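Sequence in, structure out. First:
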Amino acid sequence: MFLRKLNIWNFRKYGVSELDSKLPGLIVTFNDSFNLLIGENDSGKTAIIDAIKITLGTSSEDTFRISESDFFVDQEGNTSKEIKIECIFSGLSEKEAGIFLEWLTFDENGNYELQVRMTAQKQKNDLLSIERIERTIKAGPENASSRLEGLARELLKSTYLKPLRDAEIELKPGVRSRLAQILKNHQAFRKNDSSEKHPLEITFQEANEKVEEFFDQPYKDGDLKTIKSELTSYLDNFFHEPINGENKYESNFKITPVKLNEILKKLSLLLEDVPSGLGSLNLLFIAAELLLHDDALSIGPNITLIEEIEAHLHPQAQLRLIKYLQRNKENGSTGGQFILTTHSTTLAASTKLEHIILIHDGTAYPMNAENTELEIEDYKFLERFLDSTKANLFFAKGVIFVEGDAENLLVPAIAELIGRPLHKFGVSIVNIGNTAFNRYVKIYSRSKAWLDKFPPLRVPVAVVTDVDIKPMAFYNDSQEVGVRDILIIKKEHLTFIANKMSVDVEEIPHLVDQAFSTKKDLVSTIDLYSTARLNSNDINEIAELIKEPLSQATIDSLRMNKARSLIAEYSNSSENIKVFVASNWTLEYEIAMSTLRNGLLDAIHNVKYKKPSSDANIFKLTNMKMKIEGLADQEEAAYEVYKPLLEKKVSKASVAQQLALLLQCEGDFKEKVNTDEYLKYLREAIFHVTGGKQNV
């Protein structure tokens, strides 16, 4: 049995559906085992946890009051009159169905379903002229619901771990001991017959007898039992005279009354005798809570709600705990359902994507396969590569995906210059380190089944990439150019090439419009995807088929086609995902084509030489700038600037870092960045994720 769906009307920030006021303002669909609610601050994660607690109650008997501030307030300042929260349970066993029989309904597939509903209404008292809030909890179909009471109510209670809990106090003995509550509900401490004594009661009875015997024996110079007689004498004086010559009160020493509940309240849970920090005690407390989840005879949903689990755990402890919970849920060794909230990128990265529920813009977006366009292989890939750096995308108001270190360093610097600093707009820049954008982009694309009922995920996403088509200057500079030909794979070539590679055509569409200057380059690419070893004849046949005369027109056509295919591949119909392409070659080449050319030259110079400011090195830089200024062809000039990066004589990342520093320090770059045509695609990407349009 598990909580499948939570529906909320007019509770805090969640009102009613924009399409129909009878529909809930928020619908959350949960996985049957593990769920991690993530999102930016004030996205509504705590409201979801509180809605469950208020409706189902908690095993620690926390008291929850609905106050005026819990009622939804619309944009006009009107406060709602009624809150409604609905919890829908599925997966009931026959035994559970028997317990909840009078409240059961059936879902569309004819399976058992339990609907539990909390309503809070403002009721006006005409006599006192005040409003009071009346809360009811019922179960069953809405038109025939009845109060949920007794065992059924108890079984639905959740376990709640608040974010700033004091685990040390929770584990200590006392009247409200959480440890006692946990043990009392464990199968090992349940008594089928109240007249029978639990083994622990027998143990404490024997211990009490030992204590009594101790106080009845001689001790050093006196007799311990005189302590009891002296206490009794005091009591005689404190209270009334003896009745009929008999003392009314008599003292006795015991450890605790021999009643199981009282014994459990006296127990503490410790990590041996070693002093423990708050983090260790929190892990011990969570371990104690898991006792009920491992109870094989436990019935009911057994929901555990944990807010901000990272509050008292360092990142490695968080990671181990989350991995353990997910692994044990998959192996079936831990029962119950976990619903957690977090702000931790470590937790987001270590949680399987299908277990994540993203809370954004008043909607809960489950990331499982049913609701996204992600496929099984995508989940496997993202599980390997979605590290804590990339996981910050779940907490952002906008995301820019880039393919390398240069973009990762330069895009934020350019955003500062155009007055759209990414941090102020809550935008995360994610360097995926390759061109596999499609898998990451699919995180933000919803399935057709989802879009038939719910809104798209409107987080603005910008994919910044390159056409990666080499300019004519590259081929003119190549020593192997020979005959003026270029090798270009077109769509009509795929069937022939796929047969040679022993693969299906559907496996290699990404090869379309790829260009190669030599057969060696062609082979190195084909070998990555081929399942068969191609011989020299196969390569020659492919090369002959895809050979075209090299010209500027060919290169321009390649660039245009590649940009068009990239935009078509990664964009989506909702327009939250857009692609912005360096239309000539790479980012650095676009900068070399732009008015920032000299800034890039300076950055390359500073990285290339240990003493860039020496007279000799300044002379070299001046000569290089003069040489490049003297070139009539702009692409040829840009190629000369870019050449040290292409030949890996300097690090792209180091040059990007140097250029980012120059952009921050030198004032004359601002106007250039804001107006340069070659940098337009970067400006458009930044404006897309920060909201608004550039005024040029």
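Second:
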Amino acid sequence: MSFHRMNTAGLFKLNKEQREAVNYGIKGGKATQHRPLLIVAGAGTGKTRVLSARAGRLISCGAKPERMFVATFTRRASQELVERVQSTIRAELDGVSVRLPYAGTFHSIANNLLREFASQIGLTKMFTVLDQEDAKDLMDIVRMGSGKADDEKALPSTEVCCDVFAYSRNANLSLRATLSRRFPSLIRHRRPLATIFKRYVRAKLKRNCVDYDDLLVHLATLLRKPRVGDTLRRRFDYVLVDEFQDTNRLQFKIVKLLKPDGRGVTVVGDDAQAIYSFRAATVKNIRTFPTSFALCTKVVSLARNYRSTSKILKASNAVISLADDAFEKKLWSKRKSHQLPILTTVKDERGQARHVVKTILSLQERRVKLKQQAVLVRTSHESALLEVELQRSGVPFRKWGGLRFLEAAHIKDVLAVLRWHENPRDQLAGFRALLLLDGIGKVTAHRVLKRFDGMAPHSLLRQADMPAAAQGRVNKFRRLSAKLSASEWPASLHHILKWYRRRLKRKCENKLESKLADLEQLAVFGGEFESGQEFLANVALDPPAMAKRRYSEDDPEDVLTLSTIHSAKGLEWRSVMILNVMEGCIPSARAKSSAALEEERRLLYVAMTRARDRLELVYPRRNFQPDPRAVPVATVFSRRSQFLPRSVSSRFVLESG
């Protein structure tokens, strides 16, 4: 279908720089294989709007939606972008609808491609994706089998092993380089770690499983294979990447393998918002992008901010202007205000909590709803005193930045049963599922799975020699397994949930109602997908989050947001308060290198640019730090963050709380 007659009236709703970015590579009303394009989009400048408009414009001018690789940072961002593209196309082309089959996170797109080419990397298309905890369990099994794990000094912990392996792969570094740069104290363990990691890779292949990082590693491997790589390169005419500042070296490598000369590549991002180095993301990807391809890169900068007042932006610009090696840009806005940002000093952390609650209630009286307010912290534990004060004052809140839905044991139980059904070679899932049956212990589960490795659950349960005490439960579970084989999705999930609810009611003594509610939430979430395989992949790739929440009786939606800065990225509120803006917190005491300090500066900048109308930074003059005996030590006097020198603090109103 040709879309070249698209009405371009919608383009006039964009500003000059946005239109330049959207129209780049369109010649004579036709999409071309253009030189690489970098859109440097500052906070609040309409990044998603521009990227979706660009995708829609390319499609309207002849680009085929099924030949576009559109990668976003989160599943939610992908859904928003696709919805906007579809809305644009429908509005401009009299209701024409399009699909973007390769739009999603890097990992979700990789998952879909690996299903197609699984045999090329030693898997079947029914492979399952291990979540973080299951991957850790498998790493622990491999580590224990090394023969040295009993000696605590012989090997790093399982968690450290996982961290080293993940960083090495995402940073696209050898094990030696990873240890030298990131984990220097572990260099002496290089050889045993190399052995453990090789065994871990083999163990996953044997079980027809992949972990989260494998999805990108295997995709890069496929792209390096001459025949498959050429097939994929011919498949995609355009590659569009959102939040490029948050990509790691492996993700950039995939982009280069897909488009070696950069033709058809568009990336959008803001180096001033690069805050995920702990996930192996590197700000160098976006800063070196203009010189990363043989073809000259077009750079378009978006600086007009549609979110914040001009005074908030001037303070934010002042903070980030002191950064090293950043793209030069100054955000500006037509939104005027007489209110300067506020820099408040309080007596101590308890005084900080009281000041925050007093301010929140005062704003509420001035018709700023709780849901329009947020309190941001560097790390989750910093909000402990504030949470107590909020509860005491009856202020409903939800807290983001910690608990994950899939960490709950009852959720993992249900998913294990489903995973074993979908992939009988997944011994980790089978082991957990068998332990749900009364009368079956670890020894029996291990023996059965080893003897009948890869057999479908209902067949295994029919042939295996089980303890007499467990026979009743085994028979019921076998009937469930047979029912799953005969059911379509999502009926299979509902069968598992029905079986598990009965077990939960029989075994659970605490928080039964909340656990049953979680299962209902899982059922609703599962209904969004077309198959159990797709559902399992998505919950592993982008697990739904749970907020710690206290509801308002008057308005369930009118609750204050309490969040870490990392979890607040991409969001906005009318009023934002940032706590503990002092040395040791922002920047963190762990930030020793110049690169780490620069990322801490960017973290503060991200927090500040979440505010629309009101911004307040707070720091206590002193705080108490408990020693191991839980006895308060002498008062520690605080020093204002080094990111707020006089040249920056002059942009604030200075107050004492």
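Remark: The longest strand covers residues 611-620.
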